[in-house]
């Protein structure tokens, strides 16, 4: 991948500090399922199966625990949105790169979702004792009290943690070390910063490459079949193009290095692929071929800037 980084006159990539911050997202919840080794062995014995070949997992809440399911669904939604609106940042688990120009929108969206999360968790905590009693009756002999947190502790099992931090920078080390040691540390910070920024740019290219490659693959008919649903034709849904639209819109805002090559390619994808109606693709074999050709041309053009799998 070839990607230029904005630099200061001394050749560093420190201008990135004005363009982005780091954001940390973590969500935790109580898992309302439990692996039961004793029940697993009972099932294996019943079927004469080898030990270790099966597992028995019990649901700890009754089926009408809709608020709990809403909490789990919301966590998944927030995690996916967070990942879609930030970029990878090195190997730091949980920390990702957020453009400063997106900070306000990101914060407002997250604030609303966290408030919704807190309301759901408070409701669940109030209803928890009743749900436990229902589960006790439903599980009967499979019930074990130790599987359940106490009513006082259950609310603390659910949390969304969100933190912001500036990018690491050189030139501000206040250490009681020799000049050569400080220089070595600063060089290491600079190298790690450059590597992490390059990783963020690579993440952006990967997203764009991924949706284009999917269009190329899906719009290439097998065996020359038409759009009449006969065997051999690949099936695709509206999300094929919707994903292109979403990635193009997101990368317009996530190009933290103002990489002109990335923006030019994003604009090309938006022009050539994002404006196609999925229904037209399903009905028109010639349009699918034209679209596949355009997608493959874009992939070829991308190879000069980004190599998949690097």
Essential attributes:
53% helix; disordered N terminus; 9% strand; 4-stranded antiparallel beta sheet; alpha+beta
Helix and strand topology:
Layout (H helix, E strand, L loop, with lengths): L19 E9 L4 E3 L1 H10 L10 E3 L6 H19 L2 E2 L6 E5 L3 H37 L11 H4 L4 E7 L13 H40 L20 H16 L5 H13 L5 H6 L1 H18 L8
Antiparallel strand pairs: 1-5, 1-6, 2-3, 4-5
Fraction of helical residues: 40-55%
**Head-to-tail CA distance between termini:** 8 Å
Radius of gyration: 26 Å
Q: What is the average per-residue confidence, as pLDDT, rounded to a whole number?
A: 81
**Tally of discrete structural domains:** 2
Low-confidence stretches: 1-14, 171-177, 223-232
Give the overall form. globular
For the largest beta sheet, what order do the strands appear in spatially?
Answer: 4-5-1-6
Structural class: alpha+beta
Tally of DSSP β-strands: 6
The SSE order reads EEHEHEEHHEHHHHH
Strand % is 5-15%
Largest sheet, in brief, is: 4 strands, antiparallel
Number of helices: 9
Oligomerization state: single chain
């Amino acid at each position: 991948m070839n990607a230029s980084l904005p630099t200061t006159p001394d050749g560093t990539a420190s201008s990135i500090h004005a363009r982005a911050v780091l954001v940390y997202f973590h969500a935790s919840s109580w898992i309302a399922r439990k692996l039961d080794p004793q029940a697993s062995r009972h099932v294996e014995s019943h079927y004469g199966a080898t030990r270790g070949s099966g597992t028995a997992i019990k649901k700890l809440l009754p089926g009408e625990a809709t608020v709990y399911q809403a909490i789990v669904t919301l966590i998944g939604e927030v995690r996916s949105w967070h990942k879609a609106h930030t970029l990878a940042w090195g190997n730091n688990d949980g920390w990702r790169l957020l453009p400063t120009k997106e900070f306000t929108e990101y914060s407002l969206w997250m604030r609303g979702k966290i408030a919704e999360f807190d309301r759901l968790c408070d409701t669940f905590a109030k209803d928890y004792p009743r749900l436990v009693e229902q589960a006790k009756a439903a599980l009967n002999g499979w019930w074990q009290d130790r599987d359940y947190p106490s009513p006082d502790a259950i609310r603390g099992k659910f949390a969304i943690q969100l933190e912001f931090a500036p990018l690491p920078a050189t030139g501000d080390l206040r250490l009681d070390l020799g000049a050569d040691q400080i220089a070595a540390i600063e060089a290491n910070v600079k190298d790690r910063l450059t590597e992490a920024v390059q990783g963020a740019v690579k993440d952006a290219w990967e997203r764009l490459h991924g949706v284009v490659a999917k269009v190329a693959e899906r719009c290439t008919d097998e065996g020359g079949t038409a759009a009449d649903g006969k065997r051999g034709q690949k099936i695709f849904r509206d999300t094929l193009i919707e994903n292109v639209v979403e990635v193009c819109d997101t990368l317009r805002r996530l190009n933290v290095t103002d990489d002109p090559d990335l923006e030019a390619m994003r604009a090309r994808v938006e022009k050539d692929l994002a404006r196609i109606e999925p229904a037209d693709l399903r009905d028109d074999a010639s349009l699918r071929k034209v679209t596949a050709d355009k997608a493959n041309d874009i992939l070829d053009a991308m190879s000069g800037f980004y190599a998949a799998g690097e």
